[in-house]
Amino acid sequence: MTIKIGDVSQAAGVSIKTVSRVLNNEKYVSKATRERVEAAVAKLGYHPNSAARALAGDRSFQIALVYDNPSPYNAQNVQAGVKTRCIEGGYRMISQPSDAGSTTLLDELCGLIDQAMLDGIILTPPFTDNAAIRAELARRDISYVTLSPAMLDHAVAAAFIDNVKAAEEMTTYLVSLGHRRIGFVEGDTRYAASAQRLAGYRKALDQAGLDYDATLVRPGQFDFESGSAAAADLLALKNPPTAIFASNDEMAAGVLATAHRLRVSVPSELSVVGFDDTDLAQVVWPPLTTVRQPVRALGYAAADLLFQLPDKVEQRLLPHELIVRDSTAANDVPIGHCGQGVSEKIKDRKPFP
Amino acid sequence: MTIKIGDVSQAAGVSIKTVSRVLNNEKYVSKATRERVEAAVAKLGYHPNSAARALAGDRSFQIALVYDNPSPYNAQNVQAGVKTRCIEGGYRMISQPSDAGSTTLLDELCGLIDQAMLDGIILTPPFTDNAAIRAELARRDISYVTLSPAMLDHAVAAAFIDNVKAAEEMTTYLVSLGHRRIGFVEGDTRYAASAQRLAGYRKALDQAGLDYDATLVRPGQFDFESGSAAAADLLALKNPPTAIFASNDEMAAGVLATAHRLRVSVPSELSVVGFDDTDLAQVVWPPLTTVRQPVRALGYAAADLLFQLPDKVEQRLLPHELIVRDSTAANDVPIGHCGQGVSEKIKDRKPFP
DNA sequence: TTGTAAGCGTTATCAA
DNA sequence: TTGATAACGCTTACAA
User: Fold this and answer.
1) Would you say the C-beta of B215 is within 7 Å of strand C?
2) CB within 8 A of B95, min separation 6: which ones?
3) B163-293+323-347: which CATH topology?
4) What is the pTM of this model?
5) For chain A, which has fewer Cβ within 10 Å, the N-terminal or C-terminal residue?
């Protein structure tokens, strides 16, 4: 039989309610009492039962991370970041992989909320921009944060990077190396980041005085296959690009595979760069020059924003880095980064503890 | 305010207990009543509150997956498998990444059990072989299953593949291609699979009448870096191997990277094969010949074994496949597989529903 | 086959 | 600053 609050109160010689007060960091507990209770808790190895807490209070100390992420590395990293912050706050994270295309999406989410008495939710793309979900959450007055949303909403907390700027910097870097024909592989268009990265690419071309050439831009789905296929198309052009910028690293790996298959030497004949969404650059040869996205930090920040929620609704911009990798160099060389935050207060509600 | 069981019972014109009976699939409910209740549940969109269920019954409908996995792809796949089976059974999975080296490991786990009223636990390596954890679980009489344990224990349910046999088949395959000097990169020795795979390699050499040469075997930690380093060592030998067998795919990717860097052509000058623990073969070029481990299926099986637990303690051997990939071939060619299961009944306890 | 009443372990209310 | 007592929403006795 496991230890319960009554056992602790007996051991400490106080009432159950007093133990509860200590556990919840309430005011109006004398220092002596608090210490006595804490000692008893430690001695007995007591852990409060979360089901009972959830039922009696109405917070469950659980939040959910809702995602539909085609890339395991990315999902795992986001999860790790969220989880770290949750543990720090005494919370538990429930991870909820969902199918963005599912017709019963809203029902599933409602079920989760009812069943688990969620205290808050972190939405990741493409759910960030699902109006039905956001309306339902607002209706139920459930705190939520969006991670990398397509559009910023003043009333909704968000953690994100500046994809446009990052893609612009990367493209400008390629131009600075002398490239004039730069191929681009788009990401899955259901994710806002895809359009943002393309926009950055176009912006940099503009600034460099280079014409945008639609034949150099190919669609992709953030996976290896589409990267391979796009590269095959691009390299088969009469006048092929001298560099290819893939919207994420799995596609960049596909580009590399195709280049290798076609005996196009990287990087002497073709530069390949990407967005390191998933840390795959560590696993793929040759080491890619990438925009490093702080995926774990985004997860951590999202949870952090959730915890400060009704007090402060914040839009937090996280820094990215341009990592130039050179197989001959010993170390990676970050050549740029950006980032800053802005915040705004809106309304009062029972805060996360 | 969310709907509760009383609302449903009113709508259906029956008692609360009857609704509860229907929800829990108990016997002794007339078909007509059951249908009436189910209709009310559906109409109201009722979802039982899990905190209340956990408190009143003493099952939480939650199980935990405990892991410390250096490979995100692997972890994600195991999780996906476990989760799938959990959802089928109306359960929720809590994933618990832990640090195998932590001194407070046992405390953490106890905390989780007390707090979440876990109905069961799935242990993955290296926790599968942690005597302290297993003793504590036994003491508390908590159901658990081990996934890929180092040693089979008659009294403990387990899901696993035959690593020895798989490594043996792969090595034999290399021998059949004419290789006589086959390098081997070991995995992290904290994981039992590492020793098992090495054993299979040695066994196959034996059977082929080839001498075991310790200079051809290098240590590794299941990551890209150690694979790179091992390959550098092996290829620098006076008499280098003509094939390298890496104990997992991330290390195989490292081997490929080094080969490429040293201008050793794959596969004409060097064959590289591995264990596809993480599905990375899909992401790495060139496509590797691998032992495909059914990682998702292992997760699914582990949860499945947990659900049938006190009724039947089963040791389930899952099939692996040898996937020969040839860049010129259109499709992968599985050349072998194995698998079968045995089971045994031990004692009675309240079953999972 | 159905219903009634007594908890489950905690927090909230209100009084001391 | 503390403590008694009533919820919280459900399941498990035990009756009917």
Assistant:
1) no
2) A79, A95, B64, B65, B67, B79
3) Rossmann fold (3.40.50)
4) 0.80
5) N
A117, closest residue in chain B (CA to CA): B49
DSSP 8-state assignment for residue B189: T
Find the Å distance, CA of residue A211 to C1' of nucleotide D8.
Answer: 66
Provide, as residue numbers in chain B, all residues whose Cβ is less than 8 Å from the Cβ of A257.
285-286
B280–A50 C-beta distance less than 8 A: no
Q: Which residue has the tokens 């349910």?
A: B157
Residue listed under structure tokens 């009448």: B209
Residue closest to sugar C1' of C3 by CA = B15
- Report whether B196 contacts B170 (CB < 8 A): no
Q: What is the pLDDT of residues A142-170, one digit of tens each?
A: 899 999 888 888 888 999 999 999 999 99
Contact call for residues A320 and A162 (beta carbons, < 8 A):
yes
DSSP string, A178-241: T--SEEEE---TTSHHHHHHHHHHHHHHHHHTPPP-GGGEE---SSHHHHHHHHHHHHTSSS--
DSSP A348: -
Q: Which CATH architecture has domain B62-161+296-319?
A: 3-Layer(aba) Sandwich (3.40)
> Which member of B2, B261, B283 has the closest CB to residue A284?
B283
- Amino acid, res. A49: N
CATH 3.40.50.2300-classified regions of chain B:
62-161+296-319, 163-293+323-347
What values do phi and psi take at A246, rounded to 5? -100, 145
**Nearest residue for C7, CA–C1':** B56
Q: What b/e sequence results for A26-47 when a residue is b if at least 16 CB atoms lie within 10 Å of its CB, and e otherwise?
A: eeebeeebbebbeebbeeeebb
Helix (DSSP H) and strand (DSSP E) numbers for chain B? 12, 14
Residue A60 CB in 7 A reach of strand C: no
Tell me the β-bridge partners of A316.
A159, A341
Residue A328 has pLDDT above 70, yes or no: no
CB pairs under 8 A between A and B: 109
